[in-house]
Amino acid sequence: MIEIKSSASRRAALLLAVAAFGVGLALLLPNVYERASWNLRQGVVNIWHTLNPQLSVVPTPQVISTVSPTLLTPVAVNAAPTLGSPATAAPAATPLPALTPPPPDRQLTGFTHIWQKVNNCGPATLAMNLAFWGWKGTQANTATALKPDPDDRNVSPHEMADYARSVGLGAEVRVGGTLDLIKQFVSAGIPIILEKGIVLEDAGWEGHYTLITGYSDAASNFTTQDSLQGANFQVPYYLITESWRAFNYTYIVVYPAERQADVFAILGPDADAQTNFANAANRARGEIPALNGQDLAFAWFNLGSSLNNLGNAADAAAAFDRFALPACGRAWILLGSRKNSKREKCLKMPQNPTRQVHALLARS
Fold it and tell me: Does residue 190 contact residue 253 with C-beta atoms inside 8 Å?
């Protein structure tokens, strides 16, 4: 009897040892530890959202009886702005005399696709973009600089642009991008990063970066190097517009010094940051009467963001008041990804939903 128990104990100990070895070996594989840790945290978040279902409600615009007559009135913008100070002093290339219509199809090559690590779409996408211009590095380099805190779920476009400049390239961040603008850059041989929304089956709506490297008018698709969805991933034109709206059509252009004049020629008046915000505000004004539901909510938010960047706090506040925030969790998702805010800021906000955006902006 003693021998049988001893034998059973040895087998149990052996099985436990084998299991422990297998788990240890698995955790050494690429991304396994990160994904296990992320899944654990995501499980906690899912439980939290189950207990607080209002935090997952998609925002819808408020119905307010009166609107200031000036809020939706387009404003004149400077048609010939100064370009401002470039990030790096570069010899001017020959400016494009006029923008010609892009060809119906253009596919850039020379990319090495990178699968992102957990919550690492920004560093991975930027690494792909930088490598196209000859940079020798990996997403580990970009992630270390952009998000040294592994729990930081997002980096801002301006942080990414600053990193590109730090390695000797030029970079511009603008809002109010269009499909035609994407095609102009790609047809000129310059890929472009978009900040957009994405809907994941297991996590719902999230912010995401993707690199546009081609397009086809015949198929009405853009070609992307997407760190989450794969190399040469095809995205329909209409879906780019819908998902891009959530971030005021924000884009990042990374380029070598000798292409600076070409970049500014394509940007045109939007090369000037203030003109760009004014154009983006006018675009949101134009979209608002034609949209409804979630798209309308984003358009109001984009108008408020652009006006706030123009220093027009009063009209920005009025636009934000049109953007209903049924729970502070949604405010954190939207503004947190743009401003790199922390969730605890949102939890301390007043409970009046029409003022939550104001409170979060004040604390950012």
Answer: yes
Whether the predicted pLDDT of 30 surpasses 70: no
Helices (H), the chain: 2-28, 32-51, 121-132, 139-146, 157-166, 179-187, 237-244, 260-267, 273-287, 293-309, 313-322, 328-339, 343-347, 356-363
Task: Please report the DSSP string for 62-101 in residue order.
Answer: ---S---TTTTS-----SS------SS--PPPPPPSSPPP
pLDDT in tens, 167-193: 999 999 999 999 999 999 999 999 999
Could you give the CA distance from residue 142 to residue 230 in angstroms, rounded to a whole number? 19
DSSP state of 176: S
Q: What are the DSSP calls for 29-66, one per residue?
A: STTHHHHHHHHHHHHHHHHHHHH-GGGGPPP-B---S-
DSSP notation for 273-289: HHHHHHHHHHHHHHHGG
Contact 328, 349 (CB under 8 A): yes
In angstroms, the CA 297 to CA 130 distance is: 34
Residues in CB range of 312: below 8 A, 6 or more apart? none
pTM of the model: 0.76
Tokens read off for 350: 């007043």
Half-sphere exposure of 175 (CA within 13 A, CB side): 28
**Cα separations (Å) of 55 from 253, 325, 327?**
34, 9, 5
Q: Per-domain residue ranges for the chain?
A: 105-271
Q: List, in sequence order, the alpha helices (H) in 202-272.
A: 237-244, 260-267
**199 burial level (CB within 10 Å; 0-12, 13-18, 19+):** exposed
Q: How far apart are CA 159 and CA 315, in angstroms?
A: 28
What is the DSSP secondary structure assignment for residue 326, as one 8-state letter? Answer: S
DSSP-derived letter for residue 323 is: B
Per-residue pLDDT tens for 135-157?
A: 999 999 999 999 988 778 789 99
Domain 105-271 CATH assignment equals 3.40.50.10490:
no
Q: Which residue has the tokens 């134009």?
A: 286
